[in-house]
Amino acid sequence: MIHDVNSDLDTENVISTIKTFLGGPITTLDEKVDQFEDAVKAHKETTEKMIEEVCNKLDESTEKLGKIVEKVEALTANCMQTGNEVKGSDRPKTYASAAKTNIPTALSKIIAKNKAQARQILIDRRSPIHVNSLCELTEAQLVAKATMAVELMVKTVEDTPKDLTFISAWRLPHRGVLYKLNLLEMVAWFKTLAN
Question: Could you say which of 3.90.550, 3.30.70, 2.60.120, 1.10.1760 is the CATH number of the domain covering 103-191?
């Protein structure tokens, strides 16, 4: 009976068919795995070479920078010994003076704006100093009121600066007030918490 089943099934043909179906994809998969392994090895070698080149370039750059620093130190020492004067040269003697002579107009505008902003203080509407009545005052009245407050402080508080002057005031859309003072040191005095 088993012999009859075996002969009906034709097991050799079944096994051959299974090998054919499985053999193609498995062989292809093996080939792809080998190709992938080769690609990974090539990528690894390329990456290692690139890292080595970058390290070499960094080492070279560091050496060059070291040589430049040594040259600058030598030149600086040489200038110190010769009295900082280069005969026959009408160029600026320091970096700072050279930078001051050739300031671009855009940079000079930024510097001027920064200096102007440094002399300003903001009284915010959330500040404990701010009172709702300040909203109804004109800018001239705001300056007068601030000046009067400083005069009262000069009489009662010892370390109040005597030359403190409010130049102008601007009312801001969010109901704050921006004051402009005469000196930068006065802004620093106002920003001290004790004052």
Answer: 3.30.70
